[in-house]
Each structure stands twice: as C-alpha cells, then as structure tokens.
Design a protein that fits this description.
heterodimer; A: alpha+beta; 48% helix; B: alpha+beta; Butyryl-CoA Dehydrogenase, subunit A, domain 3; 2 domains; four-stranded antiparallel beta sheet
Chain lengths: 219, 219
Amino acid sequence: MPAPAAHLKLPADLVACHECDLLQTEPALLPGQTARCVRCDAFLARNPPDSLDRTLALTLTALVLYVIANVNPLVGLDMQGRVVAVTLFEAVQVLWRDGMMPVAALVFGTAILFPLLELMMILLVLVPLRLGRVTPRMAPFFRLVRSLKPWGMVEVFLLGMLVSLVKLSHLATVILGTAFWATAALILALTFAGRAFDTRLLWQTPLPDEAEDARVTSR
Amino acid sequence: MSRRALTAREAGLLSCHVCGQLARPPVDGAHNLRCPRCRAPMHLRKPASVSTTWALLIASIVMFLPANLLPVMTTTSLLGSQQDTIMSGVVFLWQSGSWPLAAVVFFASVMVPLLKIIALVYLTLSVQRRSTQNLLQRTRLYRLVEFVGRWSMLDIYVITMLVALVSFRGLATIEAGPGAIAFGAVVVLTMFAAMSFDPRLIWDPLAGRSADPHTAHHD
C-alpha cells in the first residue's frame, strides 16, 4: 500500500481518532477486520474483502431497486371497493397540495432525493477508481456522500409505512405494492454496500503535484 | 509512539474529518485551512461547536412544545372529525391492540426526541464545565444520540402515508396538522445539534490536567 502521508514525515500508519483525537497507530488489518480507537472504542477503519467490486455491485443493485421502488405504487388501500394506490412521490405531492410544504420537502429530501444523490455520488467516486483513473476531483463528491449519509432515511421510511398500514388495517384492506418489497430490498443493498465500502481506498493513491507541500495550505 | 496518551491537538497536528490525513498547521496560524490530500476544510475542532449546539438545542426545545401539543393530523369520516396529537396516536395504537407498534412509535416519537435533547444539554454543559468525569460513558452517549436520532422521523412518514392513502372523498380523509411541521423541525434541529457537537471536546480537558507542558495552543 502506498503511504499517502509519507511526505509529511509522519508515520504513515499514524491516525487520530475522530471522536477523542488520540494519536495511535492503525494496525494492519486482515480482510474482514475492523480497527477501533484504543481509548474510546470509536470506529477507525475496516478492511472489507474485495471492497471496490462488492461496493460497486451492491450500489448498482441499490440503484436498480431505487428505480423500482420509486416508479411503482408502494401500497394500495381498498375501502368498500374503492381503491387508492400511491407511489412515494405522489404521497409527497398530496402533502404539498395540502399546504404542508415543509413536511413534504422533508419527506422528499430524506426518502427520495438524498438516497438517490448518495448512490450517484458513490458511483461517481467508485467507477473512475475501478477503471484506474484517480483524480483529486472526486474528493468533493466523496465529501457530499459523507454529508448526505445521515439524511437518507429509507429504513425509517419503511418502518413508518408499516406503522401506517397497521393503523389502516381496521379501516380498509391493505394491498402491498411492488415498491414496498423493492424498498425492503433497497435497505438491504444499502446496508451491505455501506459495510463493503472501505473509504481508505480513495486516499491510497498519492495525488500529484500540489500534495508535495506537506503543510496544510491556506486558501 | 508515546508512553502517555497524546492527542493530535497536543502534538500540534490537525486531522482531516473527511480522509483522516494528519497535517501540521502553518506557524502563522492562517485561517481557512484545507486538507493537503482531499482539500476538505480543516479545523482543529468543529468551529463554534458549543455555541452552535446550544443555539440549535434551544430552538429544538422551543419547537418541542407545539410538536407535542398541536394536532399532527385530522381524520374526517362519516362519524365526524377527530384531531390527533403525537401522543394520542400512540394511545390509539395501544387501545387497538397493537401494543408492540405503540411501544415503537412512543419510543421513536416521544422518548427519542426528549432524551436526545436532555443528553445533548448534559453533554454540552459537561464540556463547558471541562469535566473529566465519565469520559467514555459520555462518548458512548453521544454515539447513541447520533445513532437513534434519525428514527424520530418515523411519525413524519406515518403521517405522509396516512394522508396520501386515506383520501376517499365522502368516506374518510386524513389531513396533516401544524404539529407535523413543528415535529419535523424538532427532528431536523436535534440532528443538526448532534452534528455540530464535537465529541473530541469531551476529552480535551484531560490535556490541561497532564504534567505534560504540551498543552493546546491553538483555538
């Protein structure tokens, strides 16, 4: 493994814990192993086997499932012969029309937009890496992945949908749609993709020229 | 490395929150530092962490009241019209026999936001008092707050699906109420509050107590 920090004259395996700032040596990890902070037990790094290929495969799977989950009806309701079925986007539209714009925007962001953006950004970062074309330009996309991650809430959405269906089961007959099952599968794909992703892959190739300056640069 | 626990700050190093790169800040103490490897903005600690967290916490406490007192939805059916708050929704689930679900919703919608606010107030206060007690427990508490926070979105999704599905004109309709906006605001504000809190501040008072003269000189 090329040592990205070698030109800093700091040991390449020296890391600072993100949660308690303790300097420590990151142990060499066997495939499947995880390193944790010696002081506060925070996650430091993981070495998932075959990370790049698995993450790419799972992210592409997630993208396909995402499309299925968003174009098909999630659930339908049969009330005395009258049937209502909605896709996720239609549900957001109903909220918007009812004057609940902030709530509609929140649902649109956390259940539709941010999960999609996260998937796209992961692909934007990993596809060039897989093809062996590493540029420093992909770093901002990765930063976006990191800041979007907490706001994608597909799994919370699925549980919310289950709760609403239980509430409605007294009123009407509930019909689970294709998108419901696709969303459940999407959560699995996202979870496994997240576990397979070794973010250290991105930084193992030293960047050209400007990184020669060992010090932090000011803008 | 060192006999005594040494943090990046004490060693005069900054660590990049995106790629983990360690770097020495320039001696002139310039601002707007960027990571030499991934170009992300670099800070010794999250900027204005304590005051930002306080501001967001106070805002979430203010929004917490309308979120729980105002109706989150109005159900209109042949039997008349009924307004529900977050808590009456839980009571309905409990009375209709789905008590495991009632417990889940009560936990996600009532307990999580409340405990999250209390935990963050405690963490911020203890950091301001430069407490050196329960360092590990407080770090774990912070991790828990970050992990469970997203699950409070549950009720927002429940409301979305109910409003979208129950739109049988003449038979039954459900509309979202103003409480839903306040509740969404609490979830978003507490998530931002947790993100603005820097868990490294929990461990920083240890540096001042050590016999080591290398105490922090940046801020």
